[in-house]
Amino acid sequence: MQQNIQKTFTASKHRYMETDPNAKLSQNAEQRKSLTNVLLQNEDVKTLVKECAEELSSVNADIKQELVNQGSLPEFENALEKSEAVEAKVQEASEKLSIVNLSLKDEIKERHVLEGKWAAITEQGKVDLRAALHDPLTGLPNRALFYDRLEHGFHHAKRHGWRLALMFVDLDDFKIINDTYGHDAGDSVLRTIAERLKENIRGDDTVSRHGGDEFVILISEVREGTNISLIAEKIIKKIQAPCNISTRDLTFSRSIMASIGISIFPKDDATADTLVTSADTAMYEAKRNKSKYFFAR
Fold it and tell me: In CATH, what number is assigned to the domain containing residue 235?
């Protein structure tokens, strides 16, 4: 099952990376910027060409007037013909530049539209990726994301000689809440507990909803002086604080009990997967002994 979860997570990441719109968006923006610069340069050239055409036209008009005043001279007539030919080419170049600039403006506009579409795809991609990796009820990392972080933390711990602690948290008699108050109330309790767990972990640690009323907590870089028992007691105390729940139909306050199973790397198991299994088994021992928390043996 763990392998299937990991495959799902990896596939989600790869799909997002393969279609990562951020790179495309950046590429489009650079291309649009480049096209805009070309358009500005072309507009400058167009202005110069237009000015040259006007000056040539003015010069040719003066030559024609001079020919009228002084009589026809073959050399002047030849020069006038060549000048008029140049004027025609300059006029043609000006018209073609206008067409090119209109095309550039359309291209820039189209790329601007594409940027907007890619931006929307980027945002949707983030939403989709978050939905694929987070629990919809609590917003906590789901199993796929948790196991990815656990594998990452596990390999770092092995490389650097760190210790890891994994806590498997189960809410006691949670079914009674659903049966007594309804599933809306039960969902509200789960969201409340999730927030309390998030507030009581360090930035590098991870809390995940494992399923139902079960949560798992990864405590990374456990120091020699770290007292895991005190951390477990603190978490249990936070969970046990009364939950003030309001739904459409009722309002109530209830204290929630929890049992925690704890496994330690490298003391207990050699793999990330078995670390979870050991903590799960220890949690059932905590329930059976009513000891609140229990360390894997």
Answer: 3.30.70.270
Q: How confident is the model at residue 40 (pLDDT cuts 50, 70, 90)?
A: confident
pLDDT in the model for residue 194: 96
Instruction: Note whether residue 138 is domain-resident.
Output: no
Residues identified as active-site: 213
Q: If we measure between CA atoms, which residue out of 184, 182, 196, 167 comes closest to residue 255?
A: 196
What digits encode the pLDDT tens for the residues 263-281?
Answer: 999 887 678 889 999 999 9
Residue 192: inside a domain: yes
Cβ atoms within 10 Å, residue 271: 12
Annotate 77-98 with three-state secondary structure.
HHHHHHHHHHHHHHHHHHHHHH
Cβ 193 vs Cβ 208: under 8 Å: no
Nearest-angstrom CA–CA distance, 51 and 158: 74
pTM given for the model: 0.62
